[in-house]
Specification:
Blueprint lengths: L2 H11 L3 H4 L30 H22 L4 H4 L3 H6 L6 H23 L9 H11 L2 H13 L5 E7 L5 E7 L10 E7 L6 H4 L3 H8 L5 H12 L6
Antiparallel strand pairs: 1-2, 1-3
């Protein structure tokens, strides 16, 4: 058994398995929110993100956020009728008894839904208005990547690093802990990377910086450009 196989076996047997190796969720709790399809194969991001990580991440971790969110809102149909982004923007209306559950799980659902959208590509560089905005706000793509990777490496424990976009197209680099979504603060994520260990540990172990550097190779800039256009006309939701 190689080192990685032994590591997986130990995690599967130990307490850490509850986070990294949870049993697959075969059916979501009844409710209004659903796990989105990837739109590409689990192996579409190889060799930078392995197919097994993609499958576990989507089918288990994201599915768990959806199931937990549906369960939290089962007795609150008016809240469940809101889209996930609206729900996060109105956390003050959520009862104290479930507010943390909603914050964490709606955030996890929204963040991951965005995450799948912007990947599955071949990297490269953006074009058009988005390229101009990156040059204006960060200097150039290389400067953005350097600052983004530094911010992602600096997230203590679990979290995300986002590039947010406002209604006039201004871009800002924003790290967030846990599953906190920029929507909570009235912002919208243009794109972002998940730096929870479950997003990269099978391939990169504790080398988060290597994962952050490799991730740029799987971005689909056409999808991100479409998100930028949606932000400019006020239709970007998650």
């Amino acid at each position: 058994m190689n080192q990685l196989s032994r590591r997986a076996a130990l995690l599967g047997a130990g307490a850490a398995a509850a986070t990294l190796w949870a049993e697959p969720i075969r059916a979501q709790a009844t409710g209004p929110y659903a796990l989105p399809k990837l739109g590409y194969g689990f192996d579409a991001n190889e060799p930078y993100i392995d197919a097994q990580t993609m499958e576990i991440h989507h089918d288990r971790h994201h599915a768990a956020y959806v199931a937990n969110l549906n369960a939290a809102l089962k007795d609150y149909p008016k809240l469940g009728a809101m889209s996930a982004d609206v729900l996060l923007s109105k956390l003050g209306q959520v009862p104290d008894s479930i507010r943390t559950l909603v914050r964490n799980n709606a955030g996890g659902h929204v963040n991951h839904s965005m995450f799948w959208q912007v990947m599955g590509g071949k990297g490269g560089e953006p074009g058009g208005a988005l390229a101009a905005a990156i040059s204006r706000d960060f200097g150039d793509l290389a400067s953005l990547q350097s600052a983004f990777n530094k911010a992602g490496a600096g997230v203590f424990g679990s979290g995300w690093v986002f590039v947010t976009v406002n209604k006039v197209g201004r871009l800002t680099l924003v790290p967030r802990p846990n599953q906190d979504s920029p929507i909570i603060d009235g912002q919208r994520a243009l794109f972002g990377n998940d730096v929870w260990e479950h997003a990269y540990y099978l391939k990169y172990q504790n080398k988060r910086a290597d994962y952050l550097a490799a991730w740029w190779n799987v971005l689909d800039w056409s999808k991100i450009e479409a998100r930028y256009s949606a932000a400019m006309v006020g239709t970007l939701t998650i």
